[in-house]
């Protein structure tokens, strides 16, 4: 059972309380974007075996969205953080580096 | 290859079973092959088999990082059916189903194909309309299905409860020629036939990189050394994204865990397969008497071959409503497999941006039923550069908006 701490209400929520929201930090491409960029935005989700960033919603709790950093290979959770940011904060990156030196996700490392 | 037969069994019984030979060889990898297939699951082995059988290409290696058929081929609920809504899907799944019918004879290996029939329950008005539509589509596609009444459902499957408190059975889509098969035997039978044609099946050989020269594939690096190849087929299901990244392109795929479970064995009580898509559950009875149960996939990316317990609970809770008889059954085993989900829940059988590199993936939660058809199409695509059965399943369909949208047609468990 996956357990994530909701950064909004501070509760350790188990999976049955949470709704997965897919890849984190998506950036919508503009109207002048190329077809390649648009295809990437719409369909090419990150699908790493390892460090991954996701959006989750505390659906059966406070109802608010947040971000989680997780390992898809071991189900280890590195941390959760606010939904109000466009990149993972430094403390989350440091927590991941401590466990997975040399990690990389998209252009974030 | 010594053929299996009643005579062979009698002969070996009389001389202490000393004459059985290994079903397939385990050779050391050669330096170069015409074709290398990554992934010795059902789809990879079927691809190799039809390359040899239909196109005479036998200088082939099938590489497997674990053991043969140890991934999703050995982890599914063995359902075979072809009652799909969209034309490209119906074509390839019906091809697979029809190949399954004679596969035991063709491979000289008993895959225990059991055309016992599949019922897909309609438990909401929406599903009734949906399955009626599918039945009409199937008759145009040449796939024999019919929409049947609740009384007929009860006749076909007496243990079902039609008046479920939440979801009464309002009818069902019935495909009489659908059924189940022994999943391991499918992989083993293809492997034996491939090995007999001189192909090398190399287990415990993980691909760690893909070599290209001038945009063309030239070989793979593996845990057992470099292997050169003229053409490369990537058929690795859940890990497709990881292998595609080695080749330098991206796939519209996310990998999630899908679980199944079996109960303790009980006396025969159900001789059809029943799928209940509204409540995310499907069930059949194996020849050993176990009730084989499958449910919905997890909603988040996962490579661990373990799923979440609450999905098992949801599935069983839903099925107990429809099958009150199973409420006291003990569950024996539960397991998970990593399935590769595309946005439209249809597979990808396609050329890739790397020349001579082909990919067959995205079968998601429903790959087992497609194994022979998928191998047939993939082999044709790799040998000739195009295959009518693979038309519509190109990886560029997402970019061009030409979905084969079975996610709308089936929703779940397809």
From TrEMBL, chain A:
One GO biological process term: tetrahydrofolate metabolic process
GO molecular function: sarcosine oxidase activity
One Pfam family in the UniProt entry: SoxD
Superkingdom of source: Bacteria
InterPro entries per record: SoxD, SoxD_sf
Protein name as catalogued: Sarcosine oxidase subunit delta
Organism listed in the record: Psychromarinibacter sediminicola
Origin organism lineage: Bacteria, Pseudomonadati, Pseudomonadota, Alphaproteobacteria, Rhodobacterales
Automatic annotation (TrEMBL), chain B:
Pfam families noted in UniProt: DAO
Enzyme class: oxidoreductase
GO-annotated cellular components: cytoplasm
Keyword Cell membrane: no
Entry-linked InterPro entries: FAD-dep_OxRdtase, FAD/NAD-bd_sf, Rhodanese-like_dom, SoxB
One function term, GO molecular function aspect: nucleotide binding
Cofactor requirements of the protein: FAD; FMN
PROSITE patterns, per database record: RHODANESE_3
Record-given protein name: Sarcosine oxidase subunit beta
Organism: Psychromarinibacter sediminicola
